[in-house]
Automatic annotation (TrEMBL):
<dbReference type="Pfam" id="PF18948">
    <property type="entry name" value="DUF5692"/>
</dbReference>
<feature type="transmembrane region" description="Helical">
    <location>
        <begin position="160"/>
        <end position="179"/>
    </location>
</feature>
<keyword id="KW-1133">Transmembrane helix</keyword>
<feature type="transmembrane region" description="Helical">
    <location>
        <begin position="297"/>
        <end position="315"/>
    </location>
</feature>
<feature type="transmembrane region" description="Helical">
    <location>
        <begin position="79"/>
        <end position="98"/>
    </location>
</feature>
<dbReference type="InterPro" id="IPR043747">
    <property type="entry name" value="DUF5692"/>
</dbReference>
<feature type="transmembrane region" description="Helical">
    <location>
        <begin position="6"/>
        <end position="27"/>
    </location>
</feature>
<feature type="transmembrane region" description="Helical">
    <location>
        <begin position="219"/>
        <end position="239"/>
    </location>
</feature>
<keyword id="KW-0812">Transmembrane</keyword>
<keyword id="KW-0472">Membrane</keyword>
<protein>
    <submittedName>
        <fullName>Uncharacterized protein</fullName>
    </submittedName>
</protein>
<feature type="transmembrane region" description="Helical">
    <location>
        <begin position="110"/>
        <end position="128"/>
    </location>
</feature>
<feature type="transmembrane region" description="Helical">
    <location>
        <begin position="39"/>
        <end position="59"/>
    </location>
</feature>
Length: 345
């Protein structure tokens, strides 16, 4: 219904998904359980990749063929990918400071950092959604079609669905409650945010899946499906209260991989297109003749409705308990909250 996973390459496409999902689960466990794993990847590896990225763009500015033909330069050159990589990595580093209570991680005021960095990440995506909606409208006025070609050579179909999902993202920011309720687990392997229960995770996952489906359509089989499911599965089965840490770890890890090896999802046997491309292909030199935006529109409506429902539930619970939903923790007494708190030191 959502993706074109069929035909001769379907086995490769499913295998690719399994490899990405399993790899993200594995790396998240390494990153959360080990200081060497966490700091080594989010500080050491990121520093090395930053030098690599700078070298590519310096080389491209000098018209060096190796840089101009580099897959990272060709496929991953939009502002969004770099903003997401460094924002997610900043979140991982900040969460480790809180988890290990190092430096500013010991202070009370820094407990608001998880809310701030998640809000920034959401705003980055909202800005991208609104950009696509505007460009789609401009394309419709100029060409009679909502298709517009991104700087990375991907045809996007901008419309009201982007506005709806962008608004859902803004609502999702206000659905984050208990900003100061940040704890370290007894084993020091997780930063816990108990007030971020299954209801928030569901609303976030629907919104973010729709974001990737609309704005990263050629990547959404992986970054909108496998990437979102990996931290959610961990939070459901063995890491209660640690979902936001799982999410940051897996997101930053995926961004590093995708930035360096973009052809895995763009031009290989593992590539998967959403049903949006009704022609069955996506090429930069050929304007798509037809589009199937119905699925994107349906999920956009679901996204805004679910996030609105959660916000209303938060307001109702806050009024009933007399607790400020941002200064205090309003989900105390729920199963998710209590199971997360049972792990806190």
């Amino acid at each position: 219904m959502f993706f074109q996973v069929y035909g001769d390459l379907s086995l490769y496409q499913v295998l690719g998904w399994i490899l990405v999902f399993g790899g993200l689960i594995l790396f998240n466990e390494i990153e959360r359980r080990s200081k060497i794993g966490g700091y080594g990847i989010f500080v050491g590896l990121l520093a090395g990749l930053s030098i690599y990225f700078i070298a590519i763009y310096v080389g491209a500015a000098q018209k060096a063929e190796w840089a101009l033909n580099n897959p990272t330069y060709i496929h991953m050159n939009s502002w969004f990918h770099y903003a997401k990589l460094y924002a997610a990595s900043a979140g991982c580093i900040g969460f480790m400071l809180l988890k290990y209570k190092k430096g500013i991680g010991k202070t009370q005021w820094f407990k608001a950092f998880p809310f701030l960095i998640v809000a920034i990440n959401i705003l980055i995506a909202v800005g991208s959604d609104f950009e696509s909606a505007i460009r789609g409208s401009m394309a419709l006025a100029e060409t009679g079609s909502r298709w517009w070609l991104s700087s990375e050579g991907v045809w996007l179909y901008g419309g009201w669905w982007n506005w709806a999902n962008g608004i859902a993202g803004l609502i999702n920011i206000f659905c984050m409650t208990g900003w100061w309720g940040i704890y370290s687990s007894r084993k020091k392997d997780d930063m816990l945010w108990p007030d971020m229960t299954w209801a928030y995770i569901l609303a976030y996952d629907i919104w973010n899946f729709e974001y990737t489906y609309l704005n990263l359509p050629t990547h959404s089989w992986y970054c909108g499906f496998a990437l979102l499911l990996a931290p959610t599965v961990a939070a459901i089965f063995w890491n209660k209260g640690g979902w936001i840490q799982n999410r940051a770890n897996t997101l930053a890890t995926w961004c590093m991989f995708a930035q360096v090896f973009p052809t895995f999802q763009d031009a290989s046997v593992f590539s998967v297109l959403p049903v949006l491309y009704a022609d069955g292909f996506m090429r930069t030199d050929v304007h798509p003749a037809t589009a199937a935006p119905q699925v994107g529109g349906m999920v956009a409506v679901l996204s805004i409705l679910v996030n609105l429902a959660l916000l209303l539930a938060i307001i109702k619970r806050s009024k009933r308990s007399g607790i400020n939903p941002y200064r205090g923790e309003i989900w105390k007494g729920t199963r998710d909250f209590d199971e997360a708190m049972a792990r806190a030191e």
